[in-house]
Amino acid sequence: MSLSRKLVLTVAGNRLITSLVSKYGMKLGASRFVAGETLGTALEGIKKINDQGLMVTLDHLGESVYKKKEATAATEAALKLFDAIHERKINSNVSVKLTQLGLDIDPTFCYENINRIVAKAKEYNNFVRIDMEDTPRLEITLDILNRLLDQHGHEHVGTVIQSYLYRSANDCKELAKRDVNLRIVKGAYKEPTEVAFPDKKDVDQNYIKLVQQHLSGGHYTAIATHDEALINDLKSWFDTQKIDKARYEFQMLYGVRSKLQKQLVEEGYRVRVYVPYGKDWYPYFTRRIAERPANALFVLKSFFQK
């Protein structure tokens, strides 16, 4: 972890900073990365995003929960997302984290919750993406995914593969047997060198390999990166391999590389924006600052503008 990232996360954990940013942050900069505290506000933002030719994946923010009541509330919130998406006729699917649905409480209880969500996605012919978390939770996440695939098929549920893990190529190979829709990311958790590539160049090389591997097998692939060099390398490969643009999409975060998102749409590519919302936005916001501390300048400027 870089020194700047450590510093940001340390400062973010200070009680006074937490209190101040939580109280004023949405008005003074956090709204760049979070679409609002309420679903209604988020939906208004999504309509504007859709009008620019961009698709969306909507996420009700929340961290790991340790009470069944909280996990049930998160499940109900996800179910309401699909109702709202259908009623508003917006172009969006939904992303969820299993820890928010009770994975750390009881995997069986968690499965019951995610099963309800996938059933709702199926009802509306929509899609839910199960976000991948750190490696201690990887196997159970894949086990739950496979149970869902057995019950609902692959059209309405998919997951995420992280290119910084040594095992990811094999995981991709196994999931390809079930034609799973995969989002490929570099990975955001701090993992030991026993399980993850320590060098960025190896992570990047594996990223390209995983995208090419999954697409070459004929499986839909979501390419989640803001790395323009990787994007350009893949675009060249798409051209040489004559890969149909309908077989993949680029994915980026709300508030990050907006010009690049629009540029890709203008070039005829499918682009989806990850749009988070909710009252528990502070941890997500601090991670965005930690990933790129220069983002903090945007927030600081907001504090001093009249």
TrEMBL record:
Keywords: FAD, Flavoprotein, Nucleotide-binding, Oxidoreductase, Proline metabolism. Residues 43-299 form the Proline dehydrogenase domain. FAD binds at residues 132, 162, 186-188, 200, 225-226. Signal peptide: none annotated. Pathway: Amino-acid degradation; L-proline degradation into L-glutamate; L-glutamate from L-proline: step 1/2. Binds 1 FAD per subunit. One of its GO terms (biological process) is L-proline catabolic process to L-glutamate. It is an enzyme of class 1 (oxidoreductase). Its cofactor is FAD. One of its GO terms (molecular function) is nucleotide binding. InterPro entries: FAD-linked_oxidoreductase-like, PRODH_bac_arc, Proline_DH_dom, Proline_oxidase. It catalyses: L-proline + a quinone = (S)-1-pyrroline-5-carboxylate + a quinol + H(+). Its EC number is 1.5.5.2. It comes from the Bacteria. Substrate binds at residues 97, 287-288. This is proline dehydrogenase.
